[in-house]
Amino acid sequence: MRIRSAPPPLMNVALLKPTRASTTLGPGYAVARANDGSLNGFFHSDKEDYPFMVVDLGTAFSIEGVRILPRLNYNSTRFSGIDVRTGLTEVAGPDFGSYSRLVLFPGPVYEPVTWVAQNLTQPVLGRFLSVQRTVQTVSADACLEITELEVFARQANTV
Ligand SMILES: [Ca+2]
């Protein structure tokens, strides 16, 4: 008889992992701010259609949930149609259609802004995680702003 031990705890496996973005508004809004563990800074893309960011988890994880803290309390309606996907191979973008969708946060969020979260019914294996604004807006609101992105998994190489 095999004794099943307790599963390891869920961890934020996106913390401080390498990131890239379609654009960045400026040095103070670097994409690394989206997963630096701090709620005081945030990533801000430039104004463009379908801005996105990608985090490389470094190895494949069995992802069980994600959550995002949008930009806090300023133009919160910019957080709209936020598509979160994952895949095992790197995709340059902006088309992440080959990735599996984890969640589509319709937005907008309202002040006071808090986390939007999704627990997955079935874990999804992924290494690269894309976050993309999929709503086209002909205005200054066509940007992606993320205070913090967290990706939850229990351990590396679970397959
Ligand atoms: Ca941050």
Automatic annotation (TrEMBL):
InterPro entries attached to this UniProt entry: BG_Antigen-Binding_Lectin, FA58C, Galactose-bd-like_sf
PROSITE patterns: FA58C_3 (PS50022)
PANTHER family (UniProt xref): F5_8 TYPE C DOMAIN-CONTAINING PROTEIN, FTP DOMAIN-CONTAINING PROTEIN
Name used for this protein in its record: Uncharacterized protein LOC108669779
Record domain F5/8 type C: where: 1-154
